[in-house]
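Annex B.
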Amino acid sequence: MTTATTGIPVRPASVGTAHTRIEGRDKVTGAAQYAAEVPFTDLAHGWLVLSTIARGRIRALDTDAVLAMPGVLAVLDHRNAPRVETDYVGFLGKPDPTCAVFQHDRVPHLGWPVALVVAETSEQAREAAESLVVHYEQEPHDVEFRGDHPDAYPVDAIMPAVTGKGDLEAALAASAVVVDAEYTTPEEHHNPMEPHAATAHWDGGRLELIDSNQGATWVLGDLAKLFSLDPASVRVRSEHVGGGFGSKGVRAHQVAAVMAATVLQRPVRVVLTRRQMFSLIGYRSPTTQRVRLGADADGRLRALEHRSLSATSTVHEFVEPSAGVARVMYDAGAHHTANRVVRLDVPTPTFMRAPGEAPGSFALEAAVDELAEKCGIDPIELRLRNEPDKGPVSGLPFSGRNLAACFREGARRFGWADRDPRPAVRRDGRWLLGTGTAAASFPSGAAPSTATATAHPDGTFTVRISAADIGTGARTALTLVAADALQVPPERVHVRIGDSDFGPAMLAGGSMGTRSWSWAVQAAGGELLERLALGTDIPPEGITVRSDTAAAVGALTPAERHSFGAQFAEVAVDVTTGEVRVRRMLGIFAAGRIVNPLTARGQFLGGMIWGISMALHEEAVRDRASGGPVGADLAGYHVATHADVPRIEADWIEDTDPDDPVGIKGIGEIGIVGAAAAIANAVWHATGVRHRNLPIRPDRVLSARAGAPDA
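Oxidoreductase: predicted structure tokens.
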């Protein structure tokens, strides 16, 4: 078989075949260097000092004694740190001022950066930082998040704050069945395995940052604006990243490292401790969500309202857009949604895997399950009866919506047809058993990116793109895409990523990274293949072509573009101890063309495990007196571990986006969406008691069984 245009034989596709990670051996043997491991001559170490009050001012810092300690080189604070520019629009909009460290004496929350101690060794820097005495003028603070906070207000962010059509109250009054319930999710923290770390140094008038981030283009652009530098004079490298989940953007440690390297004119490395990460890298805001559903007796929706409240800091406005999921999943004649925030004396929340969709799907999918119960209709059947034919709010057509197929395949494999719909009737010894389901969706977007492809005389190829592999397997996926574009085996392709010198590219976020980068890689590879087909001799330096997908992305037809999925869970509840155990889970997804089944399955399963953690374990509690989280470490903050994770299966159905040249969609986040709701719905089926507040702790199970309100 040959291509029609070039006559070059077409080899079997690499995309769609399982492939182990390209960098896997380097990672498990320790050969892969992460941001805090790259060696530098004359390296100095910085240690951040964080505030011990939640609101107030810095009155004085006793730096003289610290500067006299062994190895200490400098102490930077608001009195002597370089000035930075904060009035700009960056890659993701207005920056969080938390990253603009040491610019004033105000303290807006506990854990605010107040100084950086720089020393010859990390140990010296830490000892000196812990010895620095800071005097404060303390002020009253408010960290209490509650659903009836009087200062809440709507926020337009990535999406409009408020949407509405139809007369909601009239539609609810005319409905045969109504659900009106409030759901809450707690503050949650993402702590990737690799802590945040950055090393800054100046090389011949050019700033270079070795960093752990989710987008070199993002970090370069914001640093250039912060320090009023020509972007061409900044280079950001981030070859290996040990997890991100939305937290690895522009943060205080990078800016502090650049400041110190500028002042000392030598390389400076700043690494965050695990405890510091609870203050400085963002987190998922708590939410309070009210869902009102009105339906006919046959379960068809007439009214839908989804209102969400989340917290933000006093220095930056970030909204957890939980009501957004209702704008995609279900339609009704009266359809109203709203996202609101309240400012508190807390660190700024940020993007955390499936921001908005994860907590929003819990509330909405639990409410839909309650509606199915009231209507006496199977939960899957009720969802299928309410499948919209276009975007409920946008009115745009769906580029593909294979949710019904996900439910049908999932129901078949899970054995849903054998389910007794009555709650609290199945037992296994002391355990009550139940099953639950929920729908999942996540946007499938694309952003402009550039890539280069180079053909070498020895028959190999090098592809360069400023992508970030944060553990998703993006480097391997791009290798497979490039191999198909160049019509060669993957072994002949070397993909280089994580370097801003490769040109602008989308960050690893919003499940848009691999999709956006693949467009650029395929375009560059295809053009290079056409040039090689002309029989041109390859010079020693190779032949290179560059692609830019801005025009292609801009030409996309307006549509509702999403991945979809159906989540299934079986739980066992010990009515004596209140313990909830997930026994099995199944997720079936419609997420475009799967590039690498091996790493894709890992992404789906990882998201579903996050759902177990969200449903049963994760909960950061703020101490009202100090303003900080209780147990700000991985011992006090509970997450699902090996013993909590049962047999989990993830699979997918055929699904493509006709407007995507590679046919893929993002999969990094959809695995968590709906997972917590499926578990919560299964707990109801097991016990007959609804839990509307996450996590479903043993004490809450016992209280609910005893007839107390769900706590």
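The longest strand covers residues 431-443. DSSP finds 17 helices and 25 strands in the chain. Further annotation is deferred to the next reporting cycle.
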